[in-house]
Specification:
The chain is an alpha+beta fold. It has helices at residues 2-12, 42-57, 87-104, 148-168, 198-216; strands at residues 28-31, 63-68, 75-81, 111-114, 118-123, 136-140, 173-181, 184-192, 222-226, 229-234. The chain is 35% helix and 25% strand. Helix 4 (148-168) packs antiparallel against helix 5. The termini are far apart. Its main location: secreted.
Length: 241
């Protein structure tokens, strides 16, 4: 099941360039629940309450998690905004994510969605503090660099630094750049959800970095985007300083 999901996502995103408009449209989503809820049910009311809570709790720091309800009606959720995003844009993204996810995954008890600016995930199972290796997708620029072997080494060098930097950061977020030539730089980002431990953040990031060559070998930009962490590199600046 997971294998087919990954393949489907990879083919779908094969021709996507990575400089799409920020936060305008979702990057991707998964409806992963095995069970559904009904309209006007206690779970539906708890989900609405959860999404309202997250839209309030997340923007001040860029991350938040919450749980509402008991037993089979309990819903757990978290949201994460990219580390450079303002609280205003963070709130807008989280609200949009909640609305969009309920449209795309109606009555499913578990779902996740990603934008450039944020991710939002909820489920009837307690997933806090666990690395999410199931909900994941890949994006890459269709253009290739001239010297892929050398370029891939530079990407690896940059992310080796960023993985350690993100792990040690209170926000589990790091960006950086590496000079490739007189007029060219490589830009990177690494980020984890803050329900993870520092060690699990590092493990998640290193796993994502290890997958980059499989999907973005020699490409001018690439991302591995998951439910617990994400990494991205480009040949242009894509975050606010």
């Amino acid at each position: 099941m997971l294998f087919s999901k990954y393949i489907a996502v990879s083919f779908l995103l094969f021709c996507l360039a990575l400089d799409a408009a920020n936060c305008a449209d979702p990057l991707f989503n998964f409806c992963f629940s095995q069970t559904n809820y009904t309209a006007n049910s206690p779970y539906a009311a708890n989900l609405n309450g959860l999404l309202n809570q997250l839209s309030t709790k997340v923007p001040p720091t860029g991350f938040g998690l919450s749980s509402i309800g008991r037993g089979k009606n309990k819903v757990n959720g978290l949201a994460l905004c990219r580390g450079d995003v303002s609280s205003t844009n963070c709130k807008t993204c989280v609200v949009d994510a909640g609305n969009e996810l309920r449209d795309r995954c109606p009555y499913e008890k578990g779902a996740i969605i990603w934008y450039d600016y944020c991710l939002l995930k909820y489920s009837d199972t307690d997933f806090f503090g666990q690395i999410d290796n199931e909900n994941k997708f890949y994006m890459w620029n269709v253009e290739e660099v001239k010297n892929p072997t050398s370029f891939n080494r530079k990407v690896k060098d940059l992310f080796s630094r960023l993985s350690n930097k993100a792990q040690a950061s209170p926000k589990f977020y790091a960006t950086g750049e590496l000079v490739l030539g007189p007029s060219e730089k490589l830009y990177g980002l690494a980020q984890c959800t803050r329900d993870l431990s520092s060690l699990d953040c590092k493990e998640c990031l290193d796993g994502a970095i290890g997958e980059l060559p499989k999907y973005g070998d020699g490409k001018r930009g690439g991302r591995v985007v998951g439910g617990s962490c994400n990494v991205r590199y480009e040949l242009y600046p894509f975050v606010d300083a």
